Structures are given as structure tokens and as C-alpha cells.
């Protein structure tokens, strides 16, 4: 597979995975008692592409963690929702404040599999600590402490990973 094809596969996985999670946590407004309560957490603002997709389609507060603010100018999150710093510290602070997350999208990583997977393994219990019961995690890396579930059938199960905080 060429790098270009791999890039397309990542974008498709992100769009389909994020849409799937938004649909599965449900709408909190109205009569839907099955909706998973809580906010959304975007881990890795980067250029802001996935954040922009989230804010376009999800009707919830979106917290964003990144150590730097270097996104496209049109994608700067509201100051109150941007948690700038190391993820470990930001997640501990969120847990202490009692923030509850219905859906986390995780896209940290530098493309070096050992390093990226060690970081995700370290952060997984801290992410779990802010997740609502039954909350969903859509992740570029494996998250060993949560229950892996099937995502949308259009996403290659080796490309993106889907978890429920069961
Ligand atoms: C691949 S980019 C995210 C791309 C983004 N989702 C998009 O669609 O444009 C990863 C981002 O995660 C941030 N990051 C990686 N590890 C981090 C950590 N441990 N704490 C805070 N930010 C981190 C980096 O600064 C970088 O901006």
C-alpha cells in the first residue's frame, strides 16, 4: 500500500469512526433516554481537521487536549475548552473536576509504532477515569484497559480501534 493510499485509509477511518461514535452516543436533547451523557474529548488538535469535523456534527461540548496550539486559524477551540499541556496532567485535572466524557477521539502519535503504542498504554487508564459508563473511545492506537468492540464495517479493524467503557 502506498503512503497516499494509507493516508486515504486514515481519513476514511476517521470520518466513518467519528460519525459512528456521534450516532452511537445519541442526542441528549429530547426524549432519548438511551443517550450516553457527557462531553466529547478530542486528544490531538494538530491542524484541527478532526476537531472541525466533530464540531460540525456533534451537538456537545468538545474538550481539546494538545501541548501546542498550531491549528488552522479557522479551527481554534474556545479558550475555555482548550486544555493546553501534557495529556497526563490535563486528564488528571479533568478527573479531579469531575468532567464526564461520552466520546473520546484519540489521535496522538508520531508514526513510530513502539513510541505511539507506549504512550497510548500509559494514557489509557487516565482516559478511562474520565469516561462515562458505556462511553466510547475511537482511537488510532490500542487502548488496553477498555473493552474493544466492533466499529463501523467500513473501517479496517487494524487501522482504527473502537472501545466501550464497560
Ligand atoms: C497527529 S496530530 C493530531 C491531528 C488532528 N487530529 C487533526 O485532524 O489535524 C497529534 C497532536 O497531538 C499532540 N500530542 C501528542 N502527544 C501529546 C501529549 N502527550 N500531550 C499533549 N499533546 C500531545 C501533538 O502536539 C499534535 O498536535
From TrEMBL:
This is S-adenosyl-L-methionine methyltransferase. InterPro entries: Methyltransf_put, SAM-dependent_MTases_sf. Gene3D superfamilies: Vaccinia Virus protein VP39.
Amino acid at each position: 500500500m502506498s503512503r497516499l493510499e494509507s493516508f486515504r485509509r486514515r481519513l476514511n477511518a476517521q470520518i466513518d469512526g467519528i460519525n459512528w461514535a456521534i450516532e452511537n452516543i445519541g442526542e441528549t436533547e429530547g426524549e432519548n433516554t438511551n443517550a450516553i451523557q457527557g462531553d466529547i474529548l478530542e486528544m490531538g488538535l494538530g491542524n484541527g481537521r478532526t476537531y472541525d469535523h466533530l464540531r460540525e456534527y456533534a451537538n456537545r461540548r468538545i474538550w481539546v487536549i494538545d501541548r501546542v496550539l498550531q491549528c488552522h486559524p479557522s479551527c481554534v477551540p474556545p479558550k475555555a475548552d482548550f486544555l493546553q499541556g501534557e495529556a497526563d496532567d490535563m486528564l488528571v485535572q479533568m478527573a479531579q473536576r469531575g468532567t464526564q466524557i461520552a466520546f473520546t477521539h484519540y489521535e496522538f502519535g508520531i508514526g513510530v509504532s513502539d513510541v505511539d503504542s507506549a504512550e497510548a498504554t500509559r494514557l489509557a487508564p487516565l482516559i478511562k477515569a474520565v469516561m462515562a459508563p458505556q462511553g466510547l473511545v475511537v482511537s488510532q492506537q490500542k487502548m488496553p484497559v477498555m473493552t474493544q468492540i466492533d466499529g463501523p464495517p467500513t473501517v479496517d479493524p487494524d487501522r482504527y480501534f473502537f472501545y466501550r467503557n464497560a
